[in-house]
Amino acid sequence: MNPILFSAEKPLDFVAIGRLCIDLNANEINRPMEETMTFTKYVGGSPANIAIGMSRLGRKTAFIGKIADDQMGRFISGYLERNGIDTASVVTDHTGAVTGLAFTEIKSPTDCSILMYRDNAADLKLTAGEVSEDVIDKAKLLLISGTALAASPSREAVFQALAYARKHGAVIAFDLDYRPYTWKSKEETAVYYNLAAEKCDIILGTREEFDLMEAFDPNPGHDDRVTASKWFDYSARIVIIKHGKEGSIAYTRDGASHRARSFPAKVVKTFGAGDSYAAGFLHGVMEGWTIERSMEFGSAAACIVISSHSCSDAMPTADQVIRYMEDCNSGKITAT
Ligand SMILES: Nc1ncnc2c1ncn2[C@@H]1O[C@H](COP(=O)(O)OP(=O)(O)OP(=O)(O)O)[C@@H](O)[C@H]1O
Ligand SMILES: O=C(O)C[C@@H](O)[C@H](O)C(=O)CO
Description:
By secondary structure, this protein is α/β, with parallel strands linked by helices.
């Protein structure tokens, strides 16, 4: 059973808040950054990718964020708009902040890393006063993402968005999205992640991300059920712990656990898996599907993105996900 109900009267399905940046993905793959000469530019940042994924899946989507007043900022807003995302709540910085850049190194399908340039990044300058209450009031589902909690004033902006979502009855999803480079310490991360997670209905993260959150709340066995059960004493109704290629496990408040099979993939690079999984899963939950079916849909969406060069640009439509699952079932798609 799907434990989440969405308000049918609200005109907007989904709004995400947080990081909007640029990914520069290595064109010459299977080599280190030192030997990489050319890159392709894409819109990036986990919440941006998830919003693009939701819009491609047919969800009415908006974004709350801040972009630099430059060509990169305009590239981001233009791309979101071309993908059907309402950018009325994306504000422009006027302090000289820049667009965060993520250069990706693709050494092998399993060995990928990201080299970040995020000093004075515009997305972290979003203030609480710039968060539109109106757009959150209209949305069925608000997604927050961990990186936006890394610094003020963006941190306060996220907490303000959470307050508006709770006031207006929007379901809240939290993708932990831990990116170490924007944080001062792991203790700081644990404190703010916990404060935000208390207010969320759906929490998605990798085992490593939940371990980080448990810095002051030890779980020596790294037990997924122990991790999940803590959040059911607060607002959570679904907690998902992701384990890369091994798949993911979801827990619900009734004590049940849910697993979905994962699909084979011809992996080009691993990043973007979590974002496409989140979009596919949240779409399924909004459709009223079972947790297992929603997870399966997210897993197949993830395989499409990790088999592609980009994250945002590769986000699939619902037809593409269904076709992918059919091709796996018929043996047409096998693992790398
Ligand atoms: N190599 C793989 N083959 C098949 N499916 C995969 C693979 N890697 C990830 N997935 C799918 O994507 C989901 C999310 O992956 P993962 O646990 O790596 O998330 P993540 O670490 O948040 O991703 P990201 O690298 O984007 O931060 C998994 O639960 C699984 O369904
Ligand atoms: O900001 C990053 O850490 C990289 C992103 O831009 C990238 O698109 C990503 O987050 C993939 O999950």
